[in-house]
Amino acid sequence: MKISTLILDWRKSLTRSTKRGRKWWKLPARLALVRFFAAFGLDRINVWLFLAGMEGARRPRRLTVLCLDRQNFSKDIEQLRRLTEMDWLTLRHRYFGAAQAPFTPERLQQQMFHFGQTGADVEKARRRAEQLFRRWIRALRRRGIGAVMSANSDYWQDEALRRACQDEVFPFLVLSREHYITAAKRDERVTRYRAASFKYLGRAVAVFGPQTVETMLTAEVCRPDQIRVTGAPRLDQWRNLAHPLQPEKLAVLISFARPQYGAPACSHDVAKAFAAVAARCPDPDFRFVIKCKNEEDRGLVRAQLAGGLSESVQLVLGANLLELLSTARVVIGFNSLALLESLLGPAAVIVPCWKDAADDPANWMLDPGDLLTQRCISFASDVSDFTQRLYQAIDRAQPEEETGRLELLRRYFHYPAAGSCSAEVAQFAREAMEQ
Predict the structure, then answer these.
(1) Containing H/E element for 15?
(2) Are 163 and 201 in contact (CB under 8 A)?
(3) Could you tell me which residues are beta bridge partners of residue 87?
(4) How many CA atoms lie within 13 A of 62 on its CB side?
(5) Which one of 23, 109, 136, 226 is most buried, by most CB atoms within 10 A?
């Protein structure tokens, strides 16, 4: 990478930070500095920047884990901090890509498929990155940090760190934010794992439910003794949360516009029907919200509505999901973990089941033919049926009865009757550090 490119990269990041009211050392500019120093092999400076970028309080005589934070993982970290007697520091995961990109071949910069790459340039890049991370691990040890934890087992940015942790006999752990809950997704993931010849080189992996255990063991990614079901700490925020006597005037559509959800054609119909109901709703206080995952998702939803988006529908990013799901009168979605989470709340749950959402049972998260699922979920067979069910849910002022909703959730997520998922993750980390 040219020096001029690196300097320009840093100046652009500095300008963006200043325009946003941030100080120069905030994340965009700091990542640009990391890339700059990485290009010249200045590992000591980057180790200092890594240490300076860590967030959270560390208290004396407490076991401490450093979490490599990224979108959605922060929800789990928040509960771990709230409910356990361990300290959970964070460092943004983006540091690791910035520190390796200047010298890492592009074919190594891909999730999972980085593992089987060979060649002199690959080995040189790995040695270079492992050297940086060994230096950083020693600095973590001196500060009393006992492990690092990532949100996935196969990020390319973590591979050199996993290898360095092996060399330094330092625990690299995973609390996997990916959970493979449809047969199609599990089959696709096993195929990709095998094609990449991927093997997990960390110490242990915690997952949300048995489906992910089955996927990883079938693909022989890790040994059975390396993986444990702990559940998702983010679900602990629902414990002891009282349902409102009367849900708010709120309808939430969890967008499934992205192709990864497997039903873009049905998603198009649902978005337009949802907007049409919002436009005709006689109650001006009733809110209609479409929860989008990211900017790409919001762009897809805007394209779906193509002129049909009015002030009656809000497209939101980064909203507090608990606040939405715990107060909504109705939640709509397809193949989303958030849809399962809504079973812990008072809302009626509607799942569209037509066009590509009904084509392949292997792509169904929720089976419309299952008796327990039928008790908990309202399946809509077409646009007219969906519209009718949505109006019925809007008119219903009382919260939904439990009627097996918790039992259905537990088919997909480990959710202990006593204790918490956070406590089980803490125990998992404690035992891994003692090995």
Answers:
(1) helix 3-19
(2) yes
(3) 64
(4) 15
(5) 136
CA–CA separation, 168 and 157 (whole Å): 18
**Tokens 């390319």 belong to residue:** 156
How far, in Å, CA of 239 to CA of 83, rounded?
Answer: 11
Cα distances from 405 to residues 39, 228, 409, in angstroms, run 53, 24, 6
Distance, in Å, from the CA atom of 35 to the CA atom of 33, rounded to the nearest integer, reads 5
Its pTM stands at: 0.90
| Type of residue at 163 | R
Cα distance between residue 393 and residue 349, in whole Å: 9
Find out whether 291 and 316 touch, Cβ atoms under 8 Å: yes
Q: CB-based contacts of 293: which residues, under 8 Å, 6+ apart?
A: 255, 258, 317
Query: Partners of 149 in the beta sheet?
Result: 67, 173
Q: How far apart are CA 220 and CA 14, in angstroms?
A: 45
Burial 375-396 (b: 16+ CB within 10 A, else e): ebbbbbebbebbbebbeebbee
Distance CA 262, CA 184 (A): 10
DSSP state of 18: H
Question: Could you tell me if 208 and 229 are in contact, meaning their C-beta atoms sit under 8 angstroms apart?
Answer: yes
The whole-angstrom separation of Cα 73 and Cα 198 is 23
End-to-end CA distance of the chain: 41
State the residue for tokens 């006992």.
146
> What token pair was written down for 224?
């059975």
CA atoms within 13 A of residue 98's CA, in its CB half-sphere: 25
| H/E element, 65 | strand 64-69
10-residue mean pLDDT profile of the chain (435 residues): values are: 50 47 67 94 94 91 94 92 96 95 93 90 94 97 96 94 96 96 94 95 97 97 97 95 83 96 96 95 93 93 84 88 94 96 94 96 94 96 97 86 89 95 98 94
How does strand 330-332 pair with strand 313-316? unpaired
The residue behind tokens 């809007």 is 394
The Cα–Cα gap between 100 and 26 comes to 20
